[in-house]
Amino acid sequence: MSTTAVHSLWITAAQPLDKIQAPHIEYAQLAPMIIVFGAAILGVLVEVLVPRRSRHHTQMFLAVVALTAAFAAVLGLAAGGYGTTRAGIAAMGAIAVDGPALFLQGTILLAALVSVFTFAERRLDPSADGRRVDSFAAQAASVPGSDSEKAAVKAGFTTTEVFPLALFAVAGMLVFPAANDLLTLFIALEVFSLPLYLLCALARRKRLMSQEAAVKYFLLGAFSSAFFLFGIALVYGYAGSVAYARIADVVDGTVQTIDPALAATMGNDALLLIGGAMLLMGLLFKVGAVPFHMWTPDVYQGAPTPVTGFMAAATKVAAFGALLRLLYVVLPGLSWDWRPVMWAIAIVTMLGGAIVAITQTDIKRLLAYSSIAHAGFILAGVIAATPEGISSVLFYLLAYSFVTIGAFAVVTLVRDAGGEATHLSKWAGLGRRSPLVAAVFAVFLLAFAGIPLTSGFSGKFAVFRAAAEGGAGTLVVIGVISSAIAAFFYIRVIVLMFFSEPRPEGPTVAVPSPLTMTTIAVGVAVTLVLGVAPQYFLDLAGQASVFVR
Amino acid sequence: MNPVNYLYLAALLFTIGASGVLIRRNAIVVFMCIELMLNACNLSLVAFSRMHGNLDGQIIAFFTMVVAAAEVVVGLAIIVSLFRSRHSASVDDASLMKL
C-alpha cells in the first residue's frame, strides 16, 4: 500500500464523521456470557457493599443463580434452534453461536456450577476460633505463618473474592470456544487465565506450595500467551484480517478481492506456517499436551483442590473448543500440514502422560498426569477431522469434566492433621475405613481408566472410533496401549485402597456438607448415566457438531 | 522506510524476550522479558497494519496494552506475595514440588 493511501486513511479517521454506524449486537444470543460477566461484576460490588459476615452466603447465592440462569439461557438458545438451523455469527462477527459453542458452554456452566459447591464447602477444615472456614486463605496478602495471618484467621476473614474470580474465569471460558476472530480469542484467553492464576495462590493450607504453583502457572501461562499473540500477529500479517472466515478464505486461496499488499503477504507461507504453529502452541499449552505440559503437575498439586478440579475440567473444555474451531474453521486448508504435527503431539501426550503417571506418589500429581494422558486421547478425536471427530470430542469433554470434578472433590475429603492427605501411602486401606468414599473414588478411577459401564468407556470408544474412521488407525492402536498403561496405575490405587491394611496413623475422612455431597453425587450420576445409556448424549453431541462459518 | 524492517526488529525483540525468559532466574526479570515479547507482538501488529492499510492491527495493539497492564497487576501481586513469604524472587528456589 502506498504512503498516500495510508495517509488518506489517517485523514479519514481524523475527520468528523457525519454518522457513525452503531454496531448491531444480538443481546439474546450473547445472554449466557452477559449474565456471567454481569454477575462477576456484581460480585465485586458485593465485596464492597455487603458486610463481611454475610458475604460468603451472598457471593455463593449470586454465583449459583448466575450460572443456573446462564445455563437456562444456553438451553433456551439450543431449544430455539441456534445450535442447528439458526446457527450464526453474532456481535459483528466476534462470536459464533452454533452447536459446538452452545454444547461446550453448557458443559462449562454445569461443571462450574458443581465446582462452586466445592468452593463454598466450609465443614472440612477444622473450625478456626469457632468459625467454619473454607479451603481458601484467610487473607491472601498476609505472609504465611506471620502474625498478620494469625490475626486475619482470628478475625474470621475469608477470601470470598474467589466467587467473582471464578465467575470471571467462567465468562472467559464461555467466550473462548465461541470466539470467531483471533482478537476475541486472545482476550477470552486472558480473561479466563488471569483469575485462574490468582485462584491458584489462595490455598488456606500449604500456602507456600500454593504461591509457588501460582508463580509457575503465571510465568509459563504469560510466556505461552506471548507466543500465542505473536502467532496472531503473523497470521494477521498473512491474511490481512483476524476474522476466521476471511483467514480461511485466504488460506484456501478463494478470496475475492486481492490488493497488492495481500498478494505480497499471501505468497509468504512462512508467515502462515509459523503463525499457525504459534497459535497451536498457545492452545496446546492450555490443554496440557506433552511438549507444553510441564506446568500441569505442579499447578494441580499446589492449587487449592476445589480450584484444581474446576481448572482441570473447565479449562480443558474451553481450550479444546477453541482448538477445534481453529483447526476446523480457520485452518482446514492447512490440514496436510497440521495433521502430522498433531499426530506426533497426540502420541507423545498419550504415552508420556500414562508412563510418567506410574511413578507418581501424590494423588493430585497422579490425577494431573492422568489429565495429560486424557488430553492425548481427546487429541486423537481432534485429528479425525470429520463431523464424528467433533461430536466424539464434545462427548468426551462432557464425560471427562464431571469425572474430574468428582475425583478432586473426593480428594478434599481425605484429611489428616496437615490438611488434605494427598500422599498415596496414606490412602492405603481407605476402603476398610470408609467403604463409601473409597467406592465412589473407585468409580471415578474406573471411568478414568475407561472400563465399560462408565462414561470413560463411552467417551474413549467414541473418540477412537472417530479416529479410526478418519484414517488414524495407528493412533488408535497407540491410544489403546496407553489406556492399558494408564489402567495399571488406576487399578493400583484401587488395590491400595481396598486390599492393603490401613495404617494406624492414617487419615480420616471428613463428613462434608450437602454441597460437596451434591458435587460428588452429580459426578457419580453423570459417570454412570453416560456409561450405561450414552446414546441420547451422543446424539446430542452429533447434532451439535457443525461449526458455523 | 520499508515496513518489513520493523518486522525483523519485532522478531529480534521477541527472540531476546524469549531467551531472557529461559535464561534469567529472577521472577521479576522473567516477567519483564515476557512484557518485551508482548511489545514485540505489538510492533509487528502495527507494522502489518501499515502494510495492509487497515486498522485491525493497531486496534489489537491497544487491546494488547490493556491485557499487558492487567497481567502486570495479577503477576506482580503473585510475585510479591511469593517474595514476601520466601525473601527471594528466584524461580529456581521455588521448588517445593519438584519430583
List keywords for this structure.
heterodimer; A: 549 residues; mainly alpha; three-stranded antiparallel beta sheet; 22 helices; B: 99 residues; Helix Hairpins
Molecular structure report:
With 549 residues, chain A is mostly helical. Chain A is built from 22 helices and five strands. In chain A, the strands form two sheets. Chain A has a three-stranded antiparallel beta sheet, with no helix packed on it. In chain A, strands 1-2 form a two-stranded antiparallel ribbon. The longest helix of chain A is centred in the middle third of the chain and has 33 residues, at 207-239. Chain B has 99 residues and is mainly alpha-helical. Chain B has one domain (4-86): Helix Hairpins (Orthogonal Bundle). Chain B has helices at residues 4-23, 27-52, 56-86. The longest helix of chain B is centred in the last third of the chain and has 31 residues, at 56-86. At the A-B interface, helix 1, helix 7, helix 8, helix 10 and helix 12 of A face helix 1, helix 2 and helix 3 of B.
How is this fold's topology laid out?
The complex is a heterodimer of chains A (549) and B (99).
Chain A: H1 3-14, H2 31-49, H3 52-79, E1 88-90, E2 95-97, H4 99-119, H5 147-154, H6 162-175, H7 182-200, H8 207-239, H9 244-252, H10 260-266, H11 269-287, H12 295-302, H13 305-330, H14 335-358, H15 363-383, H16 387-411, E3 414-416, E4 419-420, H17 430-433, H18 435-449, H19 455-469, H20 473-499, E5 508-509, H21 514-532, H22 535-543
Antiparallel strand pairs in A: 1-2, 3-4, 3-5
Helix pairs in contact in A: 2-3, 2-6, 3-4, 4-6, 4-13, 4-16, 4-21, 6-7, 7-8, 7-13, 8-9, 8-11, 8-12, 11-13, 12-13, 12-15, 13-15, 13-16, 14-15, 14-20, 15-16, 15-19, 15-20, 16-18, 16-19, 16-21, 16-22, 18-20, 18-21, 19-20, 19-21
Chain B: H1 4-23, H2 27-52, H3 56-86
Helix pairs in contact in B: 1-2, 2-3
